[in-house]
Amino acid sequence: MAILLYRLGRLSFRRRGRVLALWLLLLALLGGGAAAFMGPTTSKFSIPGTESQKALDSLSREFPQAGGATGTIVVAAPEGTKLTPSAVAPVTEEAGKVPGVLAAVDPFASKAVSQDGRYALIQVQFASVTDDITDAQREAFREAGSSVADLRVEHGGEIMRGVPEIGSTEAIGVAVAALVLVLTFGSLVAAGMTLLNALVGVAAGMAGLFALSSTVELTSTAPILALMLGLAVGIDYALFITSRYRQYLAEGMEGEEAAGRATGTAGSAVVFAGATVVIALAGLAVAGVPFLTVMGLAAAATVALAVLVSLTLLPAALGFAGARVLPRKLRTRDPAAAPAPVEAGTAFGFRWGRIVASLRVPVLVLGVVGLGALALPVQDMRLSLPDASTEAVGSPNREAYDLTTEGFGEGFNGRLIAVVSGDSAQATGAAVKEAAALITDTDGVLAVAAPQMNENGTTALLAVIPETGPTDAATEDTVHAVRDRVEDVKGAAIALTGATAIGIDVSEKLAAALPVYLLLVVGLSILLLMLVFRSILVPVKAALGFLLTIGATFGITVAIFQEGHLAELVGLDTPGPLVSFLPILLIGILFGLAMDYEVFLVSRMREDFVHGADAREAVVSGVGHNARVVTAAAVIMTAVFGGFIFMHDPVIKSMGFALAIGVLIDAFVVRMALVPAVMHLMGRAAWWLPRAVDRVLPDLDIEGEQLQRRIPVPQQESELVKT
Question: What is the C-alpha separation between 498 and 503, in angstroms, rounded?
Fold first, then answer.
């Protein structure tokens, strides 16, 4: 691999004009495709095989008018007064005239008035599903009843859920990344070139993603996840290759040769690191959840493009930049002299490597115990799909949720829908009566509304109001109890659905898939690292370090976002359960990023060991040469992910926070402290591999041993400053 990438790097450097033209053409084509074929994103969570999804599918066939989006208008009278039918009627009438509304139900007719008579709920049924509701319809719904005097009117429901948008907060992470790159390289040219290459990869990935959005059902969070990862890994990969290129230039190597060798050595590590991220993200399909599969594939495609940019466009950009990627003091140095002195950041890396070597046992014990303590809150982790209770205070949906809770109790925000389907109207009617009685008598059920029948009477809807809120653990017990009670009803099929039931089904399906996926990821990491480093103990050590990272990251995220400790620091209004797909998504992403740092750090250790260095000195050398790159990469990734913490959407906020804290833990605690400590303890045993296994495994040559043997390093040139 190293030889192939070496030749690719030299070719891209030499033919830099053509490479640049090809990338510009590709960007233009993808941009044109995005402009021509971009479709809307979706907020649907389709979960094949679950009871709630089967009920929705049945509704779309047998009761299509009940399958559209719903909205809720909450009306409240001033304190000490009661609502009257005449006072509420104008609000109901206005809601019924909203374009696309099939019906707005009078709360006095449906008995949706609180016991004290002060609050009322107007249920509004749209003909179209949520994703087809236009902004004009949504605005008209929001204005319904706004002109009615002396009443408080709030608008909520599924049509009022906002779609997270890519905004200005991401620029914060990019700005911090630019600053870190300037400080790391000491050259505006090197920093700008690295950042520009990453942006090209992100632009290509996002354009391609939006070009496919009209044919692929793209969830609203998929583009944001792709942007997060594409930007972070794009900068990191370019940083790693550019750092190695600068090292070769400073040693007096000619530009094209330096670009080839940087691509052959550091580029090999980038290919493997990128492959692990792509495989881990694509592996999200193991959960069997379509929206999660799409998110994983979208992010994986963006990461793959980041790797391709780093291997082709970056060497071309290095050709245009020449020696300007070096600090000014090194550009004018006589290449015939001794090699350039080690930079301050790198010197610190060597000092840190020797500190860890001398304190390896205390570092290991302190690190493991500390990360274990941070992981303790994981045992209380709860998962659910987001609801209005965690939205920003002051948002329309949150105001409607709080007002409904105030007047009726939290259970009215978590309404369940029992779908009763029979072969005849008579059979369905009998089943509805029996089911309603059984459900009413179920613990945790507050009330069951009168049934709604389709035109031929074969399908009925029963609205079930639980006593507790949508994300309450007791509501989950209620859903299971209701399903158990009605499964023996004769004459009709009964399935429970609704946003609350869907959220419970999604969480349970993802929770069941989580151990399988974690086992897949850990097994994959051991296998891939065994191929790269030709060792048994190094992959096992890497996998155990990854588990420590995951545990501590989950623990901190639970403590802040679920339990509310220090929630104000991240701008979280209301703590609550973590979004159900966060753990499995976090495992996939952090696995890839953890392997990035593992490869960047340990590949240099392996490289020096293969080339004759003592095992423990190779560890110090690996830390010394890559400390600056790994720390800069971690700070950049943390900044990029951290920028998403400032978004108002709690789902995106939690994703950004968890990824940022996970990167910090993995890079600075696990890879920069625990890994060298363990490697020092193992010594030469770290690189032990049974001969039988050694003969079977292919030699990927990540460390460039074959490259150095087959294409020796040429004599130092004297054209450095002319490059």
Answer: 9
Q: Are strands 70-76 and 119-126 parallel, antiparallel or unpaired?
A: antiparallel
Return the exposure string of 365-386: e unless at least 16 CB atoms fall within 10 Å of the residue's CB, then b.
eebbeebeebbebbeebebbbb
Residue ranges of E strands in 127-185 = 152-156
Tens digits of residue pLDDT in 407-422: 999 889 888 999 998 8
For residue 238, which phi and psi values (nearest 5 degrees)? -65, -40
Q: CA nearest 684: which of 585, 610, 632?
A: 610
* Residues 6 or more apart in contact with residue 143 via CB below 8 angstroms: 94
pLDDT 10s digits, 303-323 = 999 999 999 999 999 999 888
Say what the pLDDT of residue 75 is.
94
The Cα-based distances of 91 to 151, 159, 312, 396, 613 in angstroms read 10, 18, 62, 17, 80
CATH of 62-160, one of 3.20.80.10, 3.50.50.60, 3.30.160.340, 3.30.70.1110: 3.30.70.1110
Q: Which helix (H) or strand (E) holds 606?
A: helix 582-610
DSSP single-letter state for residue 424: S
Look up residue 353 and give its two tokens: 């490597």
Cα 570 from Cα 612, distance rounded (Å): 49
Q: Beta strands 383-384 and 578-579: pairing type?
A: parallel
Give SS3 for 99: coil
Please tell me whether residue 448 adopts helix, strand or coil conformation.
strand
Q: Could you tell me which residues come within 8 angstroms of residue 669 by beta carbon, excluding any fewer than 6 positions away?
A: 367, 370, 371, 549, 552
Q: What is the pTM of this model?
A: 0.82
